[in-house]
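User: Some background: our group keeps a shared notebook of sequences we're curious about, and every so often someone picks one and asks for a predicted structure to add to the entry. Today it's my turn. The entry only has the sequence so far, pasted here. Could you supply the structure so I can complete it?
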Amino acid sequence: MFRLGPTFDEMLHPASIDPAIRAQAVAALKDDPLNPVNLYNITWRGADDAIKYEVIPPEITGVAAPIVVLYSRDFPTGAHKVGAAYSVLAEALLFGQVDIDQHTVVWPSTGNYGIGGAWVGGRVGARSIVVLPEGMSRERFEQIERYGGQIIKTPGVESNVKEIYDKTWELRRDPNIRILNQFEVMGNYRFHYHVTGNTIVELSGALKARGIGQGRVAAFCSAMGSAGTIAAGDRLKQVFPDLKTVGLEPIQCPTLYNNGYGGHDIQGIGDKHVTWIHNVLNMDAIMCLDDIACKKGLQVLTDPAGQSLLVERYGAPQPVVEHLGTIFGISGVCNLLGAIKTAKHYRLGKDDVVVTICTDAIDRYHSVMADMARDYGPIDYTRGTAYVEAIFHGATTDWIKDGTPDVRRQWHNLKYYTWVEQQGKTVEELDAQKDPDWWIQHQALVPEMDARIKEMRA
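Assistant: Of course. Here's the predicted structure to add to the notebook entry:
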């Protein structure tokens, strides 16, 4: 018999979890990471109930607007996708779509969602298959295997999601297979709308208490993979109506920017289609970032020589710089560069807080960093200075398209080609998403899900 973990509200406020269970979970996170009680560690908060965030020093960003990152390093798998994976599987279990004793669950992914699915599936007793491109980092495959997930590799790299979909359609022929598609199912959206979004709302108050901002968030930036994370922007706009929600994608695969396509290596984003769960009609701009620039930026933040440079030449506080080196991955740097572009594009000032996400951390990319040092050279004083000046301080305001009403409709219409032509949705279902109430109704399901989780746990 499987046992579910936390409710959405308990993921938002882990202090509301039964104290005995919470204490077990906190202890297990370090000492027994495969213990199912770690489901109660799916939260943006630490054992002290404080939100896990860092304010990026202006010596690094080069802008006056405070840029703040929530970081995912301390989630049970080291990435926030475990929250989406848990929410998706929990809802499938609640409505009888998955029978643990009968079905094998399949996690279509380019990495972190599959890692999260393998971990979550194992904690509730499910057999898991992760389908992901063969070109992802070696560390991703190793982690899935450690969690007991079976791997099916598909051709290509991050942007080759069509190949993943094709494989899942093959797998569906088995009546004992259940596909948990992060790009489609709304449990992913609900996790970030409710848990990530409300965490940022509460973070704005904590920042004001530190003298950072005026208790509001001016902009929220998120690169899109499944487009789960950017759902937090829907919640933030309800609290801060003037907030700008900014989506990010690679220059090498600018799907929303100009219907572009191509391969890239910002792992976790830029999947060459508009996902079903992405509320593009609520997005204010799309910005594009270069994948090599993101990886060079990660070199600076994580290499000891780069960190010394940031402290000694630019005056960034050493404890903060050392911490940044443990919380950033490639897509986190993409988000940071997007936040800098956002501050410049909207001409934000010292009271205009910009929030973004570190979706995973450097532990997934040591092999990628070794390749960068081989291909572009190791970080030294000269190379590091050039990277800081060009990539961080020199972030430009090109590759930006504002979300006018016409542009938003174009973004929405792009869903047709994946979801109606390929994945079995109807035009009526697609048109229904144009109504804001469609999204509000999905947001309003969180209390029902929580009640069902509590009933099933009992």
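Suggested note for the entry: The longest strand covers residues 127-133. The CA atoms of residues 305 and 380 lie 6 Å apart.
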